[in-house]
Amino acid sequence: MRRINKGLAALTSVALAFTIAACGEEKSGSTETKAADPASLSAELTWWDTSDAKNEGPAFQELIANFNKTYPNVKINYQSVPFAEAQNKFKTAAAAKTGAPDILRAEVAWVPEFASLGYLYSLDGSDLLADESDYLAAPMASNKFDGKTYGVPQVTDSLALLYNKELVEKAGVQVPKTWAELKTAAQAVKQKTGVDGLYVNAAGYFALPFMYGEGGDLVDTTGKKIVVNSEQNVAGLNVAKDLIASGASVKPSATDSYGTMMTLFKEKKVAFIVNGPWEVNNIKTAPAFGGVENLGIAPVPAGSAKAGAPIGGHNYVIWSGVPQEKAAAAVAFVKFLNSAESQAFLAGKLGLLPTRKSAYDVASVKSNAVVSAFKPVAEAAVSRPWIPEGGQFFGPLDQMATEVLIQNKDAKGSLDAVAKKYKAEVVPSYATN
């Protein structure tokens, strides 16, 4: 594949001197623009925010308002784009070279894919990476592709076991550390309180803790092998199936598994779920739940091999088609959004986990019980394969989860179908079992 490599370079925080170097097979060149102070920087930028519009969006719009206090002449066209649509929508617009946003909040797995297609600026040498050592290594790694850096990590996360403290205490059960203990605890909650004990979400991403727990994975990038249909993954999915079949878990909804899970949890109709920090604000503002003080957070339970949840999160990236006259403003905006102060603000508002080490030194973050509970969860998370195809793994996994956890199909057969899909459409150069 022919690629055009572009780079952002040399934006200083004082002079805001910006250089864009575009180098490809046919042309190369550079242009420099300077602004004496933030007030003289003028541009109109479009930002696609893929966070939850109702739960998280207002906090990001507050950040925009704060940004404009310093940069009054940089207009931010804020657009909330549904997460489920954003990946393909961005690729379509970037390929057409029209309609793509200047800045995108991208899921971690999208960055290597977009970079491989030539849709993102390399940030190497730019002011955005001047303090790269302040970022946690794991979330920063998702921004790397082919020796270059194409984004900065906005937030990191992982899945944890969330529970209703009141219901757990009423049932007299301990917080479970294994799936077997969770099965027992969930059944006890239902017996003693009349409330359902557990909801297992039927989605590919949420199936990973069961698969990781038995020592499984999706692909072996070192050996270039598809391993999604391994015996370990079959065993992990059977653990999840048993939780549902035994009545420990509610049978997942066939129409809106995730939404149903969150509604039941917020209304205190289920005691245990597996989810991430992005839902903390949603939970703590739910009228019936009892506030964040009633929210328990623990690592996901372990299988026979280990306890493991995937690294998640989002990164800020800049479209490679951003006009040169806008580039300095785009970098200034991303730098503001991702400062330690902004990350601390989001941690306080939403319970999101900062990616900057210095943000954890901010007093409000240090005293944040939710962040403190999730930080070790994220630090122990399992790294996903940061390859261009990584963002395409979950469509087939979602279909598999529906078949296995809702339609009660055989785990091995459904995983074999995923492996065939990976081989045919996602990583055709990889070997299969």
Automatic annotation (TrEMBL):
What domain of life does the UniProt record list for this protein's source? Bacteria
Provide the transmembrane region boundaries.
Answer: none
Q: Which residues form the signal peptide?
A: 1-17
Pfam families linked: SBP_bac_8 (PF13416)
Q: Which Gene3D superfamilies match?
A: Periplasmic binding protein-like II (3.40.190.10)
Coiled-coil residues are none
Q: Which keywords does this Swiss-Prot/TrEMBL entry list?
A: Signal, Transport
Report the InterPro entries cross-referenced here: SBP
Q: Does the keyword Magnesium apply?
A: no
Q: Does the keyword Ribonucleoprotein apply?
A: no
Stated family: Belongs to the bacterial solute-binding protein 1 family.
Recorded protein name is: Extracellular solute-binding protein
Q: Which organism is it from?
A: Actinoplanes flavus
